[in-house]
Amino acid sequence: MNCKEDAGTFNEDLVTPGIIFTDVNETLWTLTDAEQASVVDRILDFKMRPDEPPVAAQFLCARLYEEFAKPPSVQHGSAAASSVGFAPEVVSCARHFYDHNYDLTFALEHILMDKTHFKDSLGTKKRWPLGVHVEAMTDFDLYFPGRGQWAANRAKDVGMQPFEPPDVSGWDLGSVWTLDRITKTHEFLHDYVTGKVYAETVQGDFQDRKTLEEKLAPYYMGPEHRDKYSYSKRFCGSDGFVEEVGKDGQQFIDASAMFGGALTSLSPWEKWQIWKRAQDLAIVNVCQFVC
Predict the structure, then answer these.
(1) pLDDT value, residue 176
(2) In 106-150, beta strands by DSSP E
(3) Model confidence over 71-129: pLDDT tens digits?
(4) Contact present, 145 and 98 (Cβ < 8 Å)
(5) Other C-beta atoms lying within 10 Å of the C-beta of residue 148
(6) Are 249 and 258 in contact (CB under 8 A)?
(7) CA torsion angle for 46, 109, 103, 47 (degrees, to 10)?
(8) What pLDDT is stored for residue 1 in this prediction?
(9) What pLDDT is stored for residue 168 in this prediction?
(10) 255: closest CA among 204, 211, 190, 286?
(11) Phi, psi of 287 (to 5 degrees)
């Protein structure tokens, strides 16, 4: 009732029964709070089948699964699918969600406790390009004059200009990572993050083994990689780094090799440069694009 019709154009929607609002002659009034609440409640409470949670709750849980976990799949037309095609895990989430009056925390609780689709899938889900940028800006305190416009330009570089998705459904994570956007993200990480990362160490940190071990303690790779350190631990965790062809193992530095091994004769400056090259590999590694 709040939309003005073009009297000269036939609007098929006005004479086509909907799924929820089936009476084309019904007038929906939304002037008062009570009238607005009535319309919203009809949408949020609508069920295709009485033994299922509302369609809206299923849809919202499916989107939350897409955002935070690995979306449960079900074969089209399968008996396991709900009346609107969602997997049993989504239906279970929707029921929990609806039973708690659409309190979002209960839907998220259900998803984060889903071992198969959340915990066991960590490290395999694509990250949004904008997420890579924003987290780097936050983690490394990237502040510049006119930072807001600068940040907006970086978002535009990767096709995610704020408030301008391609349509009302937002961006599609399955297609947002084009080669151009991957390149722009690599350039961003290299141009703005490497300098901050390099500044965390100085030449003197590589003067002797004790100093190195104290300085790089957060990046020690543990007993399975004895005496080895890698900046990839910050970005990728202990085992998320993806080896690059021709650069196998170069994300590590070996304290034993630097002090008592093949690299002993190198100067502290040269050892520092080896660490920087290892940092470079970690900063732009593909592990940055999954979570």
Answers:
(1) 84
(2) none
(3) 898 877 788 899 999 999 999 999 999 999 999 999 999 999 999 999 888 777 888 89
(4) no
(5) 9
(6) no
(7) 0
(8) 44
(9) 82
(10) 211
(11) -60, -20
